[in-house]
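Let us work through a complete example step by step.
Step 1: write down the sequence.
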Amino acid sequence: MKISEIKEILASDAPRAEQLEEIKADQRAGVQKLYESYLKRLAKLEEKKEDFQNRLSYERAARAKGATLIAGIDEVGRGPLAGPVVAAAVILPEDFDVIEVNDSKKVPKNKHQEISDKILEQAIAVGVGVVSPATIDQINIYEASKLAMVEAVTRLATDFGNGEQVVPDYLLVDAMELPTKTPQDKIIKGDAKSVSIAAASIVAKVVRDGMMAEYDKAFPGYGFTQNAGYGTALHLEGLEKYGITPIHRLTFEPIKSMVNK
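Step 2: predict the structure and record it as tokens.
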């Protein structure tokens, strides 16, 4: 076989066993280098699959208790100076297999939309909750995050929240306990420990980033598309130059001090 053919075979999803045996026996240095690289990729993939299975332990434990509709819940947007806090609730099927799903902070930003789309394709139900900056100022960010999570659960439905309503029988919640009679696990750093919570974190991130991109069109000069409302240098420069917008959180510094002046 030509080197180019071997490269193509090893890049495919499932090389045939006889092809691998032939490549393994090929003594050309270039071929052996390609084969070693293939084995390393294979080992890395197996490691990723094992990690994925480990992060399904909370889901398996819930199913062992009799649960069938297990919702992972997470929020994004606690720290920004502007924009809402957004939560998502996601119920995944038992055979969910998108191994790229992980804590949104560990997934490259340019992969968020692609992975979110895969989650939505396989999810049994998805719900999103949004709490405005004005409400955040009224009840504080912790309570607003909890409110967004509760709203996400109540909005759980097929077809990304637009279809038939789905009521979960178990909740996996990132670092928070929700006021509900539904059995739940409060999991510290849950987005790194539970696939369902990680899926919710990615969906919530994509939804909120999309909202902030739209706000960037309405309020240019703050860099909302790039910073999602966090206090970057460009954002702070925008505050100095253009002042406070209706989506800024008035109880967050330095905006609070600007208002008091």
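Step 3: interpret the result. The mean pLDDT is 95.
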